[in-house]
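Checklist before submission:
- one chain only
- standard amino acids only
- sequence pasted in full

Submission:
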Amino acid sequence: MLDRAKHERPGRRVSACRLFAIFCQESDLDSSLYRVDWIRQLISLLEDPEKPVHTAAWEALEAFVKSLPKDELEPLVVPLRRSIESAGPAGVLVPGFNKGVSPMVPIIIAGLTTGNNEQRENAAYAIADLVERTDEAAIKPSVVPFTGPLIRVATQATTYPPAVKTAILSALTSMLERIPIFVRPFFPQLQRTFVKSASDPASSSVRKKAAVGLGALMKNQPRVDPVITELVNTAKSSDDVVAGSLILALAKVVQNASQNMGDKAKEVCIELISDSFREEREESYHQSVGNLVSAMGAFPELLRPVID
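Returned file contents:
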């Protein structure tokens, strides 16, 4: 069946997928040795330009995943993610994903909620990869099942290593950049998650990814002044390393939402820039202030006294 699924003739690829779907529905034989092979093959067939082929592959994948015990899904997360990542470049829609991504959801959720750290990390990146390769209408039904577990894992700060949290923040940022309207109900939780992660003392990669995510979120928020005030106040009371990350987050917010800033928010940003010249600080701190100066370039009249 695997050989036939790779055949050069589309008709044989279709019949292989259909036969495999029947096998999954009817057979009690132990086929666990072939699970990874079929994950890789079916995901690659979802990229097939022939509609009958990627349709049959989608249906076979659905039958396959439904036939698996729920407590045996986690080991498939890493090969699934690698296969999705290989299914064309980010930003290019995969034909077979346009029917939806529901067959892959159980594997990803299992990895995210009960997998080990490597599986959680790959599950998060798999979500980002799917969002970047799937039509908006097709990804919509899976947004809520994905977003809730992502936020829950991200907010358990002491439990997971930086690589897992970075992957989760990447997935959430991809969703905000590609399908913001579908994650709107989660905006308050996402704001708290990104602000908290921007001051994570354990990892600069987590803080930087949170800064980017917060900027993407604020692009879709009409009220940005409270976040700006919170970031400024927290930065003032933090050590240079964490403060630098918070100022970077502030720069991303200003860069994406300068049109919604009030006068008081603009004023505290200028004060923060002016204060940064009063004493020598960590290089990363000064670089972040540089990013903030660049973002405040939208208000040249306010920057003029600093420059003078």
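Reviewer check: The chain has a mean pLDDT of 94.
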